[in-house]
Amino acid sequence: MRWLVDNFDTVLDLTGTHLYLSLLPLLIGLVIAVPVGSIIRASRWARRLTLVVASIAFTIPSLALFVTVPLIAGLRILDPLNVVIALTVYSTALLIRAVPEALDSVPPDVVDAATAMGFGRFRRTVTVELPLALPVLTAGVRVVAVTNISLVSVGSVIGIGGLGQLFTQGYQRNFPDQILAGIIAIVVLALFFDAALYLVGRLLTPWTRTRRSGGSRVVTERSAAGEPT
Amino acid sequence: MSIVSDAVAYILDGANWSGGVGIGTRLLEHAWYSLLAVVISAAVAVPLGLAIGHRRRGEVVVVGLVNSLRSLPTLGVLTFAVLALGLGLVPPILALVLLGIPPILAGTYAGVANAPATVVDAARAMGMRERQVLFRVEVPVALPLILGGLRNATLQVIATATVAAFVNLGGLGRYIFDGLALYSYDRVVVGAILVAVLALVADGLWALAVWASQPGTGRLRRTPRV
After folding, report:
1. Nearest to B76 among A62, A167, A175 (CB)
2. Which among B71, B84, B162 has CB closest to A190?
3. Mean per-residue pLDDT for B45-59?
4. Which residues of chain A have a CB within 8 Å of the CB of B177?
5. Chain A residues in contact with B120 (beta carbon < 8 A)
């Protein structure tokens, strides 16, 4: 802990790089996955194909992707852009599965009602389905944010910046305090963004609060009834 | 693209497969680390998920635990564990177990807690004990989600087991780290391809298990005649 306090400026500096490398891919992933996910939802085979491609993308180890992206994209091996591209692949792969699932969670009556009121497909998706899909979508975004923040640190073994540097340096110098500082910083950062996204999700969907309190009441009644005698 | 074709040629050359540092050994090492980590993760996470899921309370605990564990950086845990415990099999397995627990715990909890309430209540009304309700009703219904959690864990563990080579253990990560050190990127791609193939094979096996475990389809067990 002492090391963390003494070197707070260094840690803060690395945190900036770390956030840039982990959250930019999340944003790009969202920009790709929301429209594409909404479109492929209509056809079953497109959905299945995306599922297969996304699963294959996941089997590639992050480390391997960090070093093969420069070969394919023609960048230098130490270019931070490699990590951004690699993490964008993972983020998109996760989100492109989450978007159709989130849209599935929208009650069909509401969708039918919108159609009956004369909403076209585009307007219905953007103004009715996507807002109602937000609670499930937020859950997916939170997973991606936490995963990315934790995954960027792997890039440090090939010399990419960010808090992972504390691991490789601490390991080479045989200095556990530095590694511990890195672990603490990453966990705090991940949990902070997890909580922040949760709050943003709740603020954007004020209608879920009333529904949720109703839902939990049902659960308590049921579990009270189901208590063993 | 010659790097990729060089890598494929290296893998297809039978001479590179044998011996103590051949592809065969590295594949077995990698599979062994992964298997060990997934089995230990499951031994921890499945009972925990069953217990919390059966009570249908404590979702906050599960979500909190899963998120905190998911945010733990594997490389940090690994390097810290090596400095604390010394080199050997324990630090990488520990780091991989912590990686494998969240998906298994989340899947097991979600599967059991979301078993249809009417079915569970019916089982109780028929006089089943809590243990019977759990193992004869909730677990069979939850099996696809439990196995799905194990599938995700396996995928992540196999992909991440490459970092074991960072602290001079074996496994397919050796190709990646040795290739990086020697600036021979075709060797790096060899590692990447082999890990992806191993992960795809394991994923295929799990997909089959999930398919077979769908309740009421008679794929795993013949459905009783009504």
Report:
1. A167
2. B71
3. 89
4. 157
5. 226
- Which H or E run includes B28? helix B23-55
CB-based contacts of B202, cutoff 8 Å, min separation 6: B34, B154, B155, B158
Contact B143, B111 (CB under 8 A): yes
List b or e across A7-41, with b for residues whose CB sees 16 or more CB atoms inside 10 angstroms: beeebeebbebbbbbbbbbbebbbebbbebbbebb
More confident residue, A133 or B218: A133
Instruction: Kindly list the structural domains of chain A, giving each domain's residue range(s) and its CATH number in brackets, ordered by start.
Output: 2-224 (1.10.3720.10)
Contact residues, A window 160-189, toward B, CB-based 8 Å cutoff = 163-164, 166-168, 170-171, 174-176, 179-180, 182-183, 186-187, 189
> Which amino acid makes up residue A16?
G
* Residue pair A186/B76 in contact by the 8 Å Cβ criterion: yes
What mean pLDDT is predicted for residues B2-27?
82
Q: CA gyration radius for chain A?
A: 21
Whole-number Cα distances in Å, B87 to A50, A127, B6? 41, 56, 33
Exposed, middle or buried, A86 (CB in 10 Å: 0-12/13-18/19+)?
buried
E runs forming strands in B6-109: none
**Band (B224; pLDDT cuts 50, 70, 90):** low
- Return the residue matching tokens 């298994």: B104
> Which of A134-148, B32-46, B107-121, B164-178 shows the lowest per-residue confidence on average (mean pLDDT)?
B164-178
Whether residue A143 lies within 8 A of chain B, CB to CB, comes out as yes
Name the amino acid, one letter, at B74.
T
| Interface mutation target, options B34, B75, B186, chain A, most CBs of A under 10 Å | B75
**pTM of this prediction?**
0.84
Q: Nearest CA to CA, how far is A72 from chain B (Å)?
A: 8
Q: Residue A16 to residues A10, A21, A23, A197: CA-CA distances in angstroms? A: 10, 9, 11, 18
Q: Is the pLDDT of residue A214 over 50?
A: no
Q: What ipTM is given for this predicted complex?
A: 0.82
What does the alpha-carbon distance between residue B59 and residue B109 come to, in Å, rounded to a whole number? 8
Amino acid at site B223: T
Tally the residues of chain B: 226
Least-confidence region, from B24-33, B44-53, B212-221: B212-221
Please give the Cα distance from A161 to B82 (Å, whole number). Answer: 22
Q: Where are the alpha helices (DSSP H) in B114-172?
A: 117-125, 130-132, 139-160
- Segment holding B12, helix H or strand E: helix B2-12
